[in-house]
């Protein structure tokens, strides 16, 4: 299957980089809330704007 090019390539790499940094520092074994808070702090440090736990409508 052919992959589609990323629309927001730079932004995707920045977000994935932030997530990887949290994983590299904390490792595994913590509760989700710990990773969530650490990820939020990492996004703020990198100047990446985000919304925390916003609702999303899914249609199928």
User: What is the C-alpha radius of gyration, as a whole number of Å?
Assistant: 14 Å
The count of helical stretches stands at: 2
Secondary-structure element sequence?
A: HH
Unreliable segments of 5+ consecutive residues: none
Q: Main β-sheet, in a few words?
A: none
Average residue pLDDT: 94
From the helix content, strand content and strand pairing, which structural class follows?
mainly alpha
Instruction: Give the total of domains.
Output: 1
Binned, the helix content reads 40-55%
Q: Alpha-carbon distance between the termini?
A: 23 Å
Beta strand count: 0
Which geometry do the CA atoms define? globular
Beta-strand level of the residues, as a percent range? under 5%
Task: Tell me briefly what this model is.
By secondary structure, the chain is mainly alpha-helical. It has helices spanning 9-26, 32-45. It has one domain (8-60).
Report on this model:
By secondary structure, this protein is mainly α. The chain has one domain. Helix content is 53%, strand content 0%. The chain is built from two helices and no strands.
Topology of this structure?
Layout: H1 9-26, H2 32-45
Throw out a few tags for this protein.
single chain; 60 residues; mainly alpha; 53% helix; 0% strand
